[in-house]
Amino acid sequence: MALAATCLFSSCYCKTHTTAAAALVGNDGTAVAINRRSWRCRSMATAASIAPAVGRRRSAEKKDAVVEEEEWRSYLAPERLEVLRQLEPWVEEHVLPLLKPVEASWQPSDLLPDPAALGSDGFHAACLELRAGAAGVPDNLLVCLVANMVTEEALPTYPSGLNRLEGVRDTTGADATAWARWIRGWAAEENRHGDVLNRYMHLSGRFDMREVERTVQRLIRDGMVVHAPASPYHGFIYVAFQERATAIAHGNTARLVGASGAGDATLARICGTVAADEKRHEAAYTRIMGKLFEADPDAAVRAMAYLMRRRIDMPTALINDGRHSGGTDFYARFVAIAHQAGTYTVSDYCGILEHLIRQWGVEELAEGLSGEGSRARDYLCALPHKIQRMEEKAHDRAVKAQKKPTPIPINWIFDRIVSVVLP
Ligand SMILES: [Fe+2]
Ligand SMILES: [Fe+2]
Question: 83-420 adopts what CATH topology?
Answer without folding.
Answer: Ribonucleotide Reductase, subunit A (1.10.620)
